[in-house]
Amino acid sequence: TFTGALDVSTTSSFDGGAVGIDGAATFTGVATVEDVTVTASNSITASAGMILGHASAILKVDNASAVTISGTIEGETSAGAEGKLDVANTALATFSGALGGSDAAAQLKEIDVNNNASATFSSTVDAATITVEGTATFTGVATGTTIDLNGGDAHFTAALTETASASSSINIDATSRATFNFGHATAGSSNIIDTVTTAAAGVIELT
Q: What is the pLDDT of residue 157?
């Protein structure tokens, strides 16, 4: 566990066991997370990006005060099969960089905003599974195959669209709400999801 500020000027790699980063962290070179959970409680600046390069690679964000995570975060070689972003905080985390979208292989396996957690995604998001149990705002285009709202509140201010060549779905349970305030008259630039499933008390808002 790194309890103070962490400043790495070259490339870095985390693998095996568990890693805790309690202070603000700056990675000037590419930061790679392999078969390990890296738990960050403070802001992260990843100038050259972060790669979650293993099926068991997890970046867990558990901040107790507002933080910003900047820089791209993506998988490495297998689309939708590497890398989980796990948001389990008690204060807002803002992700300012693109997540999982530089090419098809970079798609993340999962983004999970846990119960009572909150996140704002200010750039594009691309993950095979997007789960919202807390509160999440997506201000860039969000791409996924399975979007699950389990007691969550998800707000999409840009398009929600499916992974290329995949059958997609959004599932909204009885205690969830999905708000869309993006629309477009051209089908090619509008929201594209194959199947929408809503429980009787689930809410879809179009604003």
A: 93
